[in-house]
Amino acid sequence: MKIKVKIETKSPLLVSEEFSRIWNKSQKRDKNGTSYIPGSALKGAFRETADTLPNYKKEVSDLFGESHTKMGQLQFSKLVCYNPSYVEKTHVVIDRKTRTSSYQRLYSTNALSSGNVLEGYIYFDEQLTDREKELLELLTSLVKKIGGMKSAGYGSVDIFFEYEDNNQVNQETNKKIYDNYALLVLEPLEPFLTVKERSKKYMYKSSKIINGETVRGAYANKLAKNPYFKNIIFNEEVKFPTLFPSKEEIVVAPTPFTTMKEKYRDNPEELFDLTIPKIIEKEINKEQLRISLEDISLTGERLENASGYLDYFNHKIISVESDTKQYTQTAVSRKTRATKSGEMRSYITEYYDKMVGIIRSTKKEYFEALSEIDYITIGNSKTRGFGKMKARILPLDDLKEKFKENINSFTCVVNSYIKPEKVYIPLLLTSDLIIPVNKTLDEIFEDKGFKINQQIYRKDKFTSWNVRTNNIKTAYETIKSGAVIILESEDINCVDKVWQMFLDGLGHRTGSGFGSFLVVDFSKIKTL
505: left (phi > 0), else alpha (psi -120 to 50), else beta? Predict the structure, then answer.
C-alpha cells in the first residue's frame, strides 16, 4: 500500500543543498535540475509533531519507529516539483548584541515560490489500523511548516493525502521466464545507501553496487507471510544476485581484472585483455624458457585495470555514471526540541537508472512469487526516503547456449597457440567468492572435475554491520568479484557440469549472491 502525498506551498519553501554557500542558499535539485525535498524533511516534521500527541504513543512508535531499537512502518519518498517557479530574496543577519545588521553577512535565497505543488509517496507493507490512519490525518492538519528558515516566513504548506493500492502482480514477468534463471531489474525511485562499512561514526558512504545479501534481505522483508519464505530465504533455493549499474535491461558484470587500458587514457576502444597471453606464458614456461608478460602496450605505454562494467552479450566495457549526492541530517532531542550534541550524520548516496543482475532459482514457482512484488526498499536509512526501487523479473536469452558458445570459441583461440588440445572454460566472478574453511580454490574445482589453468584474483575481507544493534557481523575472507579463473577439462561435453556449477554457485552463502560467475570469451575483448 502507499499514500500519495501532495504539498502545496503557501509561502517560499527552502530545503537547501548541503553544498549551498552561507551567503547563497539554493533549493535542492536532482541531476536533471528538478526541485525536490527529501523524504526525511516530511518525516521529521511529522515525527516532531506526533511526539506532542500522548494519546497516540503506540501508533507513533509503530509508524515512525524508535531510535536504534525499532524501524518504523512508514517509508517516505522524496517529493518532487515538476513545474517549479522560484523566488529570490536577499536577507541580512542581525547581530544579537547590537540589534543591527552584521558586517559582511548579506545573503540571498533561491526558493520555491508560493503556489508550487510537490508530489511523493509514503509506502508501508502492513495495512494501517483505523487509529494509525486517524493519526496521519491529524498530522496533515497540524503540520503547517517544512524546511529551513521557518522563523523568517518560509515553509508554510498545506498537505493532502490520497490512499492507493500498489499490490498488483507484474504481468509482464509471466510472459516467458526460464525455469532456472532470469534478469532482476531494480529501477531506483530514490537515491540508495548500501553501506558495506562505516569509516566514521557519522559518515555513511554507499557502495556503487548492491550486494546479493542486501537484495535478499529486502525480499525477505516482503515475503515474510509467503508460504515459500522458508525455501526461498532459509534454504537458499533462490540465489539473489549482486546488482550492477546499467542504463538498459542487459546483463552487466564487473570489468575483469585481466582487462587493461593504457595508463592515463580513457579511450574505450583501446582495451587489452591479458587472459590468453597469460595462458601462453604459462605453457611456454613449462619448457623452462622463463618468459614473463609485462603490462606494457605496443606503443610502450604502461597498462592499468580498465574501469567501468562489462556488457556481457556485446563483449564491451561500458561506463555508467551515478547522480552521487551528499545529505547531512541532525538528530533532534525529543525533550528539548533542539539538535543533539554530536548527532550529526552525513550520507553519500548513489542513484543510477537501473541496477541489474541474474537471479537463479530451483523452481519457477519461486520466480512467480517474487514477480508479485513490484517495489522493494534497499539498504540503510530506508525510512528517511532512501532506497525505494521498482522491481521486475524479466526473461533472458538462452544463457546455457551462450556459455557453450563462449567455451567453444575461447577454446578454439587458445588451441590455435597451444598443443595438446584441451577444453578451456573462462570464468569471470560476478560476486565475491567465500572459500570454505580448510579448502583451497583448486579443491573446489577438482571436486567438480576441473583443473585450474589460470587464476587472476585479489583477496578481500567482506563484512557488514547490523543497523539495529550497531554491531559488526561475521567477517569472511573472499576472492573479489572481477576475478578471472580459467579451467581445463578433457571432456568436450563439459558444458552441463559448468551449467550446474552456475546454478548452484561456488563456495559459501550462495543464496546471498556469493560465488556467482559468468562464462566470458575473453578473446573477444581486444587482446594484447
Answer: left
Model's pTM, two decimal places?
A: 0.76
Q: Which helix (H) or strand (E) holds 219?
A: helix 212-222
Q: Which CATH architecture has domain 171-251+343-394?
A: 2-Layer Sandwich (3.30)
Three-state secondary structure call for residue 14: coil
Per-residue pLDDT of 174-209, as tens digits, reads: 444 557 899 999 998 888 888 865 555 667 888 899
Report, at the CATH architecture level, how domain 399-524 is classified.
Answer: Sandwich (2.60)
Three-state SS letters, 232-291: HHHCCCEECCCEEEECCCCCEEECCCCEEEECCCCCCCCEEECHHHHHHHHHHHCCCCCC
Cell of 255: 570489468
The set of residues, in sequence order, having a beta carbon less than 8 Å from that of 227 and lying 6+ positions away, is none
pLDDT digits (tens, 9 = 90+) for 450-497: 999 989 988 877 666 555 555 566 677 889 999 999 999 988 889 999
How far apart, in whole angstroms, are the C-alpha atoms of residue 319 and residue 302?
22
Numbered ranges of CATH 3.30.70 in the chain: 2-164, 171-251+343-394
